Amino acid sequence: MFMRHLATSLVALAIASPAMADFWSDAAAPYQGVTIRGVSESTPPSNYVRDVLAPQFTEATGIQVEFETTSWDQMYDKAIKDMEAGSGIYDFVYIEQDAIYSYLSRDFLVDMTQMMADNPALVNPAFDWANFTTFIDYFKDPNKNDHVFGVPMEAFIKVYLYRKDLFENPEIQASFQEKYGYDLAPATTFQQWRDIAEFFTAYGQETGQELYGTTVQAASGHPASFYEFWESVAPLYGVYDWGINQETWTASVANGGRMNSPEAVEALTFWLGLLQYAPPEATASTWDEVASSFAAGRAAQGLVYGENATWIATNAEKSSVVGNVGVALPPTAEGVMEAAQSGEGYIGYYDGGAFGIPHSSANKEAALLFMQYIAQPELQAGWAEAGGRIVLNSTYEDPKVQEIDAKTDSYFTLMKDSGALFAGAPPYPFHNQVREVSAPFIYEAIIGNLTPQEALDQMAAATEAELKNLGYTAN
Amino acid sequence: MRSSTTGWLLLAPTIAVLVLTGVLPFLYVLAISFFDWNLFAVNPEPRWAAANNFRRLVHDAEFLKSIWLTLLFTLWVVASQVILGFALARLMMRDFPFKKVFRAVHTLPLMIAPIAVGATWRLMTVPGLGPIPYYLKDWFGIDYRLSMFPDQAFASVVVMDIWHWTPFVTLTILAGLSNLPQEPVEQARIDGAQEWQIFRDIVLPAMKPVLLTTIFIRIMDALRVVDEVWMLTQGGPGAETRFIGLHIWKIVFPKTDYGYGSAMSLLTLYMTIVICWLLYAAMTARKDRAS
């Protein structure tokens, strides 16, 4: 009897094992020859999907993937137009964390939790929502029982990078000590940040090097400068959520907001003051150029998106500062770190995005398989190395990731341990609309046409006018 | 009757395409311009706004500034291109060493897509990477930063556009010059006319139709410039190179303010038609008076 049961079990196992191992080809069998199309920003994580993961998926499933990586603004433009028109060009789109609220408000996206519940044959048995980091919470809709509307594909924090080779050079240390009266170390106060910036700019001039004190993401015609200020610098001064009061939908101090508060003015004054110590390309720099400047060895410190931190620290083909990159938390004003630790504030931007399926897609099932495929734990380490991103808890334990972590001055450890101190963009469905009316005042401040106070006063007024136009406050 | 029917039948495909791609979109934009419509408003449905969008335009400082910048840009580039193009076309009417090489090289920018032109100029002008800021600093001590100094940015987009489109003007005028009858010119020479007099009284009047067409095309192109400026300056620094095309794009796409953006588009179209009509009237007025 026992032998018969054993034999039956062995036969069942023999039949079941290949099926499990070959889930992808089995699940994808009805979609052989189908082509799914996606769009994303051209970033290291997305380029890795295009170059590595998509071809692997095609090999495993027979489903073709056409993945378009384009500029940040074109990515939005294309995705929104497609979803609004319902044209069905894209089967999956990149959803930046700050865009999810707009997309949910327009009901652009498929409820993935529901779709997986309705299609068990399409669910990879190994897929586990619980393995995702808390970053996935941004892609849940609290109005729909916390159902998930996007599978996270990248998440990283914007960290303070510094040049270890410079900071640990005994001669430089002595010179700095002599000039400022304290030891050279990663900045923990704004005054230190400024001192270090001033010191290394002078050092670059004295030694004939193209070296400047700090990066500043201050493109004078691109929203990147708006983002650096409101999502990375203002929070360090305790001004959160762009200074907009989410109860009254107002921005000015007079009406209960903090957009033109003394803290915001101080933050903008400090940030603009750094420009004199930044590389000349700073006023033309978005996140990409900031990373390139740092990788080229043109800056001693600065705030850099984590998606770039790993390649800057490890890829000798693209970076001239490999092995010399230090990572730290940015300086904060008094009380801000405590507020972040208690969950009442944050110290910078937790950036990232997910892939979601538009309702207009004609190949939702194939797209769902693709998203589960790229979310497999065993594929994450290479992706983390290429793009400095981690979306699964298990990825932190991967030996390869730990190896990279050691080469990046523990960037991943910092992200794991201190990620909770950072936050994504505020949940504004009007994100792009308010950004478009506000950002020009940052641009004008950068080129000196407005003082920080004037820029923020006018920005607050324009923001309130736009919120009124959009119907958030009474006319 | 029969030939008329056949004619309409032959024209029908073209008319259908024109209606589908020109008339219907125009009517759609016209209709939207009378609505408040933002996808991400509390109420994302179009709401009747009568002429409010057009009224807003008159008081919109950003829009008026972009109109002013666009007109200034158009004036600079079209005038420069016509003068340069005429001079180069006259030069190419003569023989000189390496003329064919010069003509080929001179025509190259015309073959490059505007977006690629913008990207190329951006690479040449980015501080820390581009050769232009490097040599301007090294040779003349000039701090050249498009992203910081509005005058430099404006001048740079003007120069870029001149570089890109002067070959078009040259080739058009060259075609016109090549087809001019030579007899009046030769007769004038025999009568002892100076070269300048020949140019002013014979060549220029004879070239008027070609010039008019070229100027119209260039004005319309300059008024709607977007892609190469977007690549080079993104409308900055601040809004100092945010020409009307870029401004409309920002209103309609990132800001998704469809009604207001449509009103802007219509006003820009109207402005283009008026400018071209005024120019046409001015350039043909003298002839009418003479006749």
TrEMBL record, chain B:
GO biological process: transmembrane transport
Keyword Membrane: yes
Domain of life: Bacteria
Residue ranges occupied by any ABC transmembrane type-1 domain in the UniProt entry: 67-279
Entry similarity comment: Belongs to the binding-protein-dependent transport system permease family.
Cellular component GO terms held in the UniProt record: plasma membrane
Transmembrane domains' residue ranges: 7-35, 67-89, 101-121, 258-280
Official protein name in the record: Sugar ABC transporter permease
Cellular localisation: Cell membrane
Organism encoding this protein: Rubellimicrobium roseum
Alphabetical list of InterPro entries matching this protein: MetI-like, MetI-like_sf, Sugar_ABC_transporter
Membrane topology, as annotated: Multi-pass membrane protein
Keywords associated with the record: Membrane, Transmembrane, Transmembrane helix, Transport
Any single Pfam family the record assigns to this protein: BPD_transp_1
